[in-house]
Design goal:
The complex is a heterodimer of chains A (343) and B (198).
Chain A: E1 6-10, H1 14-25, E2 29-33, H2 56-69, E3 73-76, E4 80-87, E5 90-96, E6 101-106, E7 108-111, E8 115-117, E9 134-136, H3 137-149, E10 159-166, H4 182-196, E11 201-206, H5 216-225, E12 230-233, E13 238-242, E14 245-252, E15 257-263, E16 265-270, E17 272-274, H6 276-284, E18 304-306, E19 309-311, H7 321-342
Parallel strand pairs in A: 1-2, 1-7, 2-3, 7-19, 9-16, 10-11, 10-16, 11-12
Antiparallel strand pairs in A: 4-5, 5-6, 8-17, 13-14, 14-15, 18-19
Helix pairs in contact in A: 1-2, 1-7, 3-4, 4-5
Chain B: H1 24-33, H2 45-49, H3 60-68, H4 72-77, H5 80-83, H6 89-93, H7 100-113, H8 121-137, H9 142-153, H10 160-169, H11 183-193
Helix pairs in contact in B: 8-9, 8-11
The chains are: A alpha/beta (343), B mainly alpha (198).
The structure holds flavin-adenine dinucleotide and iron/sulfur cluster (3 copies).
């Protein structure tokens, strides 16, 4: 078996890492490029992960060690793909890091550039960007980390409110689709707050909770039943400042009555949209995208989106970390099948 | 609610026969106003944001639901029909952009056409007087409108001194509103669209 073939993996989140690992461990060369300073993507920013309250940093650490042990894999951080030229059986790709530009020829490409949170200043009624204590869910993961490290110095909030579907399932000011993972991470975050500060009241405003997955329903039920997070059925209409706190107005749609609650912090589960990097890659490479700009799949093929181009993870739609990792493995299988056939 | 004297067999919560629901009004809204209630997510953001929801007997979200359940009769009699102030907050918040103020207008039109008494007679009187002004002069003469309203409702001095006179001295109310130029045009619109009884 010749080992001359090279795969380019773009994006060093869990999906890209897994794809790179499996291709490299199978004996082919891999170039893993990541625009940030370090690998890990969104997982690196999380306090912990549903449904097993694991520390995602441990997972990344474990995977990065394997990457380092594999001689076939070259990791390039702070590096971007600038352009790509399609050849009969390869791509001529220009890479750019801080100091130099470099051209490489690769035989297959895996795009794993992830998604990002919608900028919810679009929803003026919630005051994101105006009130300090209205944050999006990713910013809240940072806050959880901070609370956990300074637990003794933090004054616990009296009340934290979580709004789901902000900009998702919203054809007026956001996207009509459901962002798939926010029901789960919102349950996780509210549960974590109750764990840290049992006296803090947590309210989750929901239309539905979507918990389709192994251990998911049990996870959400435990957050409601054991951790005593209150679920309120109704989409909040307004956040108003009141004596340094935040007054929330909504309707409890099961009771059919207007309700109000005053909170110290409001966490917005903002819609997930294709990341800027994902949009860039779909301009550079001949791939399929859907109407929102997510990488789209080729019918009848696993993780394939173009000639010698595969994808994995949140660049193609919101997905939980386990799913992103599985997709990385599946994309690797496609690359390996292609390479093996040509040898 | 059932009391101790009500017979045990009374149908207080008789099941609604889903397959017998009359959806014609929902269809009418789609045909006449282009409003598709199937896009409603039943989220309650409309009623949560409604400026008058605290005095509504049926909330904005419930209005949408009741239309879908074919219960239009109760909507034509409801108090919310006359306490909705067309402020547009609900439609601004709605993730499906459902134009509830337009639905309220449409319901008012149907109620008016069918001579269903308004629960807030004054609101109806005010609407009628205001539209009368527009029909006649092409615009509203605020001072006269307020006077006529007080005469009609028998509350002669309502708002006359405060804020009426205050507003007058600040130049907010003009007692001699200039007439519009093309008054015939406005009258023609009224002729074409009027729902006036009799
Ligand atoms: C608030 C929040 C909480 C979450 N909680 C959980 C949880 O509890 N449990 C769970 O299972 N999942 C959770 N997730 C989901 C999890 O974060 C994702 O499944 C996972 O991060 C997806 O991995 P990925 O590799 O596809 O994308 P990402 O993690 O987004 O990685 C993409 C990588 O590509 C890089 N990149 C982007 N553009 C370029 C470019 N042009 N060139 C080079 N590199 C580029 C980025 O810098 C990034 O490192 C959560 C997500 C969010 C937003
Ligand atoms: S996953 Fe849940 S919170 Fe996220 S958009 Fe879907 S229903 Fe809303
Ligand atoms: S228009 Fe009517 S229903 Fe809508 S928010 Fe205003 S008062 Fe409420
Ligand atoms: S806000 Fe819109 S989608 Fe939500 S319940 Fe009201 S009408 Fe339906």
């Amino acid at each position: 078996m010749s080992e001359t073939k090279t795969a380019l993996v773009i994006g060093g989140g869990i999906a890209g890492i897994e794809a790179a690992l499996k291709i490299g461990q199978s004996g082919y060369k891999v170039l893993l490029v990541e625009v940030a300073e370090s690998l890990g993507g969104v997982l690196e920013k999380l306090y912990n992960s549903y449904p097993r309250y694991e520390n995602p940093a441990d997972l990344i650490k474990y995977k990065v060690e394997q990457l380092n042990e594999c001689p076939n894999i070259t990791v390039m951080t702070q590096t971007k793909v600038i352009s790509a030229d399609q050849k009969p059986n390869s791509y001529l790709v220009k890479l750019q890091n801080k100091s130099e530009a470099k051209e490489v020829e690769v035989d297959a490409v895996v795009i794993a550039t992830g998604s990002q949170m919608l900028d919810v200043t679009s929803h003026g009624e919630y005051g994101y960007g105006h009130y300090d204590n209205v944050v999006n869910s990713l910013e809240f993961e940072e806050i959880l980390k901070e609370w956990a490290t300074n637990k003794d110095k933090v004054t616990p909030p009296k009340t934290v409110a979580f709004f789901k579907c902000v900009g998702s399932r919203d054809r007026s000011k956001g996207y009509p689709y459901c962002s798939k993972i926010c029901c789960m991470y919102t349950a996780k975050q509210a549960g974590v707050v109750k764990e840290m500060f049992p006296d803090t009241k947590c309210y989750v405003f929901y239309m539905d909770y979507r918990a389709a997955g192994r251990e998911y329903e049990e996870f959400v039920r435990s957050v409601i039943e054991d951790k005593k997070v209150k679920y309120v059925r109704g989409r909040p209409a307004k956040v108003l400042p009141e004596d340094g706190r935040l007054l929330i107005r909504a309707e409890d749609t099961l009771r059919g009555m207007p309700i109000e609650v005053t909170a110290d912090m409001v966490v917005l589960a903002a819609a997930l949209e294709p990341s800027a990097g994902t949009k860039e890659m779909s301009n550079i490479f001949p791939v399929k995208t859907d109407k929102y700009g997510f990488i789209d799949y080729e019918t009848n093929e696993v993780m394939k989106t173009g000639e010698r181009i595969y994808y994995a993870g949140a660049c193609s739609f919101a997905v939980e970390s386990l799913g992103a990792m599985h997709q990385g493995g599946a994309a690797a299988a496609q690359v390996l099948a292609l390479f093996n056939q040509e040898n | 609610m059932p009391s101790s004297t009500t017979p045990m067999t009374a149908d207080f919560f008789k099941a609604i026969k889903l397959d017998e629901i009359d959806n014609s009004f929902q269809q009418e809204l789609l045909d006449n106003c282009g409003i598709d209630l199937n896009t409603c997510l039943e989220c309650g953001k409309c009623s949560g944001g409604c400026s008058n929801t605290h005095i509504f007997d049926i909330t904005a979200r419930q209005v949408v639901k009741l239309i879908k359940m074919g219960e239009v009769d109760s909507l034509l009699k409801m108090d919310s029909l006359w306490t909705c102030v067309s402020c547009q907050l609900c439609v601004d918040r709605c993730p499906a952009s459902i134009d509830i103020p337009r639905i309220m207008d449409y319901l008012r039109e149907v109620a008016y056409k069918n001579q269903i008494p308004a629960t807030r007679e004054q609101v109806l009187v005010f609407h009628e007087l205001m539209l009368g002004h527009i029909e006649k002069g092409g615009r509203v003469e605020e001072g006269f409108l307020a006077m006529e309203f007080n005469l009609k409702t028998g509350d002669y001095f309502k708002d006359v001194f405060d804020p009426g006179m205050k507003m007058f001295f600040k130049g907010k109310v003009n007692p001699f509103t200039p007439k519009m130029k093309k008054r015939d045009e406005t009258r023609r619109i009224f002729k074409m669209t009027s729902l006036r009884k009799g």
